[in-house]
Amino acid sequence: xxxxxxxxxxxxxxxxxxxxxxxxxxxxxxxxxxxxxxxxxxxxxxxxxxxxxxxxxxxxxxxxxxxxxxxxxxxxxxxxxxxxxxxxxxxxxxxxxxxxxxxxxxxxxxxxxxxxxxxxxxxxxxxxxxxxxxxxxxxxxxxxxxxxxxxxxxxxxxxxxxxxx
Length: 165
Description:
This protein is α+β, with helices and mostly antiparallel strands.
């Protein structure tokens, strides 16, 4: 992995937001595909030794990705991304929600709204992600669940997937 490629992560409690930025030595086409095609998402989305398993995916405005993160002991944590606005190769918005295996939201665990933006310069693509929470408490609970560490690990996995293309 290129040592210049790192994940910048910041939590802005005042505005109930988390900002994540990561640069990849890959074209925007490849990075976009890795975020929008289930076969590629499954290769990187979950931090090792967990893995992502897609139940269904419909990447379009109004569509959603229903998936589980499965632990080494077989434990599954279900979630879904409901897609809002999609501007191909530029950005998409989504609502991230923990669910049961049928996609029914779990009201005990807060979700967040995401805007994932892709910017290409040469053959380098920067991904900026902004997560917005309803309350500071929701943001804090997400952090307590290990989101920062887990998502950084997942983005490292993505770097490996893109490097192997």
